[in-house]
Each structure stands twice: as C-alpha cells, then as structure tokens.
Amino acid sequence: MVRPSDRQSFRGQRVLLVGLGLHGGGVATVRWLVKQGAVLRVTDLKSAAELTSSTDKLRGLRATFHFGGYLRSDWRWAQRIVVNPAISPKTHPQLKAAERRGTRVDNEASIFMRQFPGLAIGVTGTRGKTTTTLLLGAILKKFHRQTIVSGNVREVPMLTYLPQTKSSTWAVLELSSYQLERLPVTGRPLHVAVMTNLKVDHVNRHGSLTAYAQTKYNIFRGQTSKDVKVLNWDDPVCRRAVKIGQGRVILFGKKLPVKVDGVTVKGSWVVERKQKKVVKLFPLQIWKLPGAHNLENLLAATAVARAMNVPPSIIVQLVKSFHGVPYRQQLIRTCRGHQLINDTAATSPDATLAAIAIYPRGVYIVGGTDKALNFRHLARVIVDRDIQTVFLPGTATMKLQSALRRLKYGRPLVTTHSMTAALRVALALARPKQEIVLSPGAASFGLFVHEFDRGDQFNRLIRRLP
C-alpha cells in the first residue's frame, strides 16, 4: 500500500512531457498531469500535422505544445521531465544533461508505480508478454473483481486507470524494456514479476543482449522476500534472474526437471508440482492457441494464477474461453481458399520464426525497419523450407534480402511499397489453400505509423476482398 507521503505531487510543478506519440499513452499522460495541477509543456520531434490524431483529443486542456523539434529553453525550464517510452535516454543529450542537473525523469510506468495504492503484477519478456498478460488478467478478474489490465497492451493506459484504483486493486501490467528503463521505483517493487522468455531484440536501443537483459531484469529489482518472481525454466537468460532481487521464485516450463517444483506439462495435462506432489490442473486439449510459444504463455499465466491462490476451476474456465490476441497470428478471414493471418506484432526475426513453425506452407509478407537484429537464421529457415516471400521496404528488408542472396534463395525478391501492393502480390503467388501471413519480423516505421497501423491496413484490405 502506498502511504500519502510516497505520492509525490505534481501540483504547481513545471513539467515537460517529451514525446506525445500516437499510441494513446501520451494523451493519457497529458490529461493526468493537467488534472494533477502541473504546469505542462509538451514537445515532440514530429510535426503538429503528424500528431493531429493525438492533439485533437487534447483540445481545451491547459498545456503548451512545441512540435517539430526540441527547444533548449524547455529543458532548462522543467522541474520534472516525463518521457514517452519511445524516447531513448542514450540518444537524447538534453535528457542526459537534465539528469546531471538533478531533474527527476519519469515515464508513465514509474509515475503509475509511485502513485498506485494496490498490488502490482508485472509481465515482461521478448515474446508472449501480451498473450500472457491478457490471459492472466482475465483469470484474475474472475477471481478478484477489482483487477485492471494495462501497460504495454492496447487497452486503457495506466494513468487513465489510476484515479479509479484503491488499496484493494490488483494491476496486471505488461511492461516493455522501454518502460522498465525507469523502474523499479524506490520502495515500490512489483509484488509479482513474470518473465516469459528473453530473445535478442531492440539491440538498436540497448546495444547488446546483455544490456537488454539487464533492463528487463529491472522488473525483479527491489523485490523483497514477500514478493514473487515467476521464471521460464526453459529459457537460460530467464533462469539467471533467480539471482536478481529477493523475490520467492516460482518456475514454469515444458522441460522443468522432475524434482523441481513449478507448473509444467505431464503427458496431456498441465500440472503443478509442489513439495513432491503432482496435481493435475487441466487437460492441454482445452487450450486453443497453437504453437510451442503459446504453450509457454499458458504455463506462465497458470503459474502466476496459482501463486495468487486462484483455484484450478477458475483457471480452466478462462483458459477454455481464451481465443488469443489481436495482431498475433490472428486469423482474420478465409478468402478464395486462403487463410489470411495477421501477425503484425512480429517485430523480430524470432517472432516470425514462431509463425513459420505454425504455418510452414504460407506466403509471408515480411520486412520493415531494422532494430540492429540478426536475420541470418530467419533467412536460413526461409531457404530450407522454400518459403515464398513478399517484402515491405526498409532497412531490415535489405539485411534479410542480403542474407537470402548469400544462401542462394531460389525465388524472386519482390519488394512492394504499400500494403495494397504486398497483398496483391501475395495473392498472385499463393497456391490453392496456401496461407498468406503478415509476419514482418521487423519494426514498421517509415511506411506505417506503427505496427498496429500496419496490421490495421492489412485487415481493412482483406476484409474488402471479394
């Protein structure tokens, strides 16, 4: 529970919000800060025209907006700075200078954790964190009605929820590495912290897998013996987090050793091992989502639910009714005999490899903006399986195409410059009953506003197909 003295007031403070953005979190942050009585300035490198969808929602609010670049005077004026998660501390010298001057820098997640009076459950990982968060959130809402689900999911932003929360509220939060850069908050660790897995990603932001992992480990830092950390035994980088923080360790994994307690699979059942006893929780056949990665997500959510003393009967009910997450290997429709799959949230090669494991015959729409990732393994799988590809433009596309050429990929490298063209080419190339899968393996900047805009364009186009 947060004591009143822990809630640091923004009233009368000169606050600079860096990065309004287009996802909705920036809008929610502006509204919350204005309501708190902050004297607010908002700045963004994007132009006012590019940010219209956000600024239209802020009309009438008392805030000053400076777009199209940063003003040095804003940074020196600010007593407090709040950054959009997309703002990298390593690439903004003004931010570094402000921190050297002693200016407090927060993001949405750190503000929420300073202010939130209830019990916080954080979920992170490279893949699977959204699916795990939403499944776990559904289970906990059934068990404890005062549960909210927020964070890095396309639900309600954290600060929008905050005024409604009480000491009895449970918050299930998906936390990206960008959000974790400003956590933990002193004296406010996550009561339950979950890591689904850790793969190479966001090297352009963090510099290396080691640095990326250390940022992810922030979810466990500050935990005491009263807190809980839930780790994927099958992932060696996750297992190393046993040494981070003081939280009680709970494990899950398909390969969990026989003598190790945790949630795992035995035969056709999800089971819980505890003090040499094995309890059957539910049969695997009730889980509708395909793929080994989705089984990991199921085990992660189940492990947390059991740590929160949720009865198996409630877990079974919600597992049965869970149909997956939009933009993640989502079947949109079947048209002309083809299943059309939207996996736009696949923004790394590993994520696209997970889709290929489920749809090995598909025509794949791939490519986009590079995050300093390695595409050699993805290229090898594409060549070995002779997968037909259609490319969206970008720096990742150039890397993947270069790797494919070195491996003597036997199909044409077709680069298109719109989602319309990409879908048209994919349909022309597809054989009867062959899936068409949007699974780019890269970020979306340039041609699209973000990965959800990319996915929305795909959905609109395929729904119009005769």
How would you characterize the overall build of this protein?
The protein has 466 residues and is α/β, with parallel strands linked by helices. The chain has helices at 25-35, 52-55, 72-77, 93-100, 108-115, 129-143, 158-161, 177-180, 203-206, 209-216, 236-239, 292-307, 312-321, 349-358, 376-384, 395-406, 419-429, 451-463, and strands spanning 14-18, 39-44, 64-67, 80-83, 104-107, 119-124, 147-151, 170-174, 192-195, 228-232, 248-252, 262-266, 269-274, 277-283, 330-335, 338-342, 363-366, 389-391, 436-438. The strands form 4 sheets. A 6-stranded parallel beta sheet has the order 7-8-6-9-10-11. It has a 5-stranded parallel beta sheet with strand order 3-2-1-4-5, sandwiched between helices. A 5-stranded mixed beta sheet has the order 15-16-19-17-18, with helices on one face. The longest helix has 16 residues, at 292-307. It is globular. The model is unreliable at 1-6 (pLDDT under 50).
Task: Throw out a few tags for this protein.
single chain, 466 residues, alpha/beta, five-stranded parallel beta sheet, 19 strands
Radius of gyration (Å): 23 Å
> Poorly predicted ranges (pLDDT <50, ≥5 residues)?
1-6
Helical content stands at: 25-40%
Q: Order of strands in the sheet with the most strands?
A: 7-8-6-9-10-11
Distance between the termini: 56 Å
Total number of beta strands: 19
- Which overall shape is indicated by the principal axes computed on the Cα atoms? globular
Give the rounded overall mean pLDDT: 93
Structural class from helices and strands? alpha/beta
Task: Please report the number of helical segments.
Answer: 18
Largest sheet: 6 strands, parallel
Query: What is the percentage of strand-forming residues?
Result: 15-25%
